[in-house]
Amino acid sequence: MNDVAIDGQPIVRARDIEKRFGDLLVLDGIDLELCEGQVISLLGPSGSGKSTLLRCINMLETIDSGEIWYRSELLGFRQRDDRYYPLGEKRKARQRTHFGMVFQQFNLFPHLTALENVCEGLRIVLGQSRAVAAERGRYLLDRVGLAEKADQYPSMLSGGQQQRVAIARALAPKPSVMLFDEPTSALDPELVGEVLDVIRELAESGMTMLIVTHEMNFAREVSDSVALLDHGRIVEFGPPDLVLTDPQSERAKAFVNAMKRK
Q: Strands, E, within 44-176: which ranges?
């Protein structure tokens, strides 16, 4: 758990979120608040809706009903009277700058060096000069322990190093909220620790984060709260020591016990 004071005002608010893929209801009335400086981990079995919730917050998926707010700004829609109208891609792209997202796969450009991968968005999207972007990129590569790898291409890096470059890239535009979608699931076990160390340092620095993970011990360590999801619903929410030690609902008990046996 991070030691940074948490602002009591929510920076992200999800209200009664529903999301369907065809006839499949993936998110079923999700309510969640994330305050500034807070770290919340989302746990649950595969298919419970964790990754879909992150993608809805970042507007990579469009919700079917409900509302998601960043501070006082409605995300993805504009409201007129009682009706909601989807925003165009340009306005959604501007809203996405509030968030940095790290995916399961690294999604690095293979033809660009580590430094160029971190800087590309700063130059193309934000219009920064090559020199200014490079200064920011080198600072971030140093922060994730890869200063000496700046001129290497993704094929020359281990999976853990590639994921750390991806984290640096997500941090580059100075987002207010970091979203992690199972950032260690594609890594060999011996490489998981180096990525978790970077996320741990971000938590300790006060970064606001929402983390989808199967690493239960890590979630217990870095999270202020954990949410257990099942079939698109939050079935348990609270401090990690309580939820992961003494869950109250039968579904949460079954999940926690199953994870302990792994």
A: 65-70, 73-74, 77-80, 83-86, 99-102
Check if the beta carbon of residue 228 is closer than 8 Å to that of residue 32: no
- Strand order in 10-21's β-sheet? 24-35, 10-21, 65-70, 73-74
Tens-digit pLDDT string for the chain (262 aa): 555 556 678 999 999 999 999 999 999 999 999 999 999 999 999 999 999 999 999 999 999 999 999 999 999 999 888 888 999 999 999 999 999 999 999 999 999 999 999 999 888 888 889 999 999 999 999 999 999 999 999 999 999 999 999 999 999 999 999 999 999 988 998 999 999 999 999 999 999 999 999 888 899 999 999 999 999 999 999 999 999 998 888 888 888 888 877 6
Give the integer Cα–Cα distance in Å for 171 and 117: 12
Query: b/e for 238-258, b at 16 or more Cβ within 10 A?
Result: eebeebbeebeeebbeebbee
Q: What distance, in Å, lies between the first and last C-alpha atoms of the chain?
A: 23
User: pTM for the complete prediction?
Assistant: 0.93
Pairing mode, strands 225-230 and 39-43: parallel
Decide: helix, strand or coil at residue 68: strand
